[in-house]
Amino acid sequence: MKKDYIFTPGPTPVPPEVGIAQVKMIHHRSADFGALLERVLEGLKYVYQTDNEVLLFTSSGTGAMEGSIASCFSPCDKVIAFAGGKFGERLVEISSAFGLEVVAIEHEWGANADPADLARALGANPDTKGVLLTQSETSTGVVNDVEAFGKIVAATDALFLVDAISGLGAVDLKTDAWGVDLCVSGSQKGLMVPPGLAFVAVSDKAWNAARIATCPSYYFSFEAARKSQSKSPPETPYTPAITLVQGLDVAIGMLREEGLDAVFARHRKLARATQAAVEALGLRFLAQDRSRAFVTTSVWAPDGISAGDIVKLMRNEFGVFIAGGQGKLKGKIFRLGHVGYFDPFDIVVQVGALEMALNKLGVPVELGSGVAAAMEVLAG
Ligand SMILES: Cc1ncc(COP(=O)(O)O)c(C=O)c1O
Asked: Residue 309: helix, strand or coil by DSSP?
């Protein structure tokens, strides 16, 4: 018998009650679905800490990234995008695909995006229409200081777009208070639902931009989504992933019951425990600032060992799924997950499996030392 454990930073484990809620098929043009969608859209506002309208799309998170660019910008609009990882690069790629002029700030993978770089770039480009930032750069484990960036953008006419796909529901993000105009997320990480739903919270400033934007869009058109969601009860323009919306309803209920502050505190504690284990095992972190890195812990493979071999061994022999490196970090790092439906014992299992894999690959580790360090934090 081999049991599988999914510890990747997306998709993440799904609580059984969320899975069970997806069993019964209902019709999306029914009163039941209307009431469900109304509740879920209200619940998303709670998770986003926003009074702004949250649009829901049936797609992975990238769909809402694309929809935000297509619906709120025009070709040749200038945007400043921070590219310090695979997902920051995606913001550059999507903007370029829609003909925007992109000022890409490429910072070192593993380093945080620097607000001073934004201030400088805005000074040199006063005609900037948008600033694009990844909150939690899942490919490196870095979590950026959205609040500090928001303060700088708020003093300009530019829209502030934040990719919170892996950070929402894990790391504090005050959408309205921090001036985020387009806050994008997805179902399969902090929200504890399978992949397939994408969301974006849209500010009035962004709706004003959408009125004059000329990039082509159809499926991800904000106008179409808003028109349908404005009905009473709300609808979606096209067939939504009905069962995922049912699951999301339950997941939001769980987040409400725990309370956002407790959810963030749990993520902080699990991250600190994981970091303590990594340190005890004598391994090196990729993320330079770990004070906010609560979503995933990115670790350099020990010298002479391929990170891919660690990931494969953990998967194939122990059924423990962690993530490898992406893009230029492929084979060099592995990523331990702790976002979403995780508890202390998920960290113990994950670290235990890592120790056993390292041991099997001939890395000198004292079995149990990482687990003990993690448990010290978890017990505290
Ligand atoms: C920060 C971030 N942005 C974007 C994406 C892409 O989202 P999706 O795969 O749901 O389209 C991910 C997924 O891992 C992510 O973590």
From this structure: helix
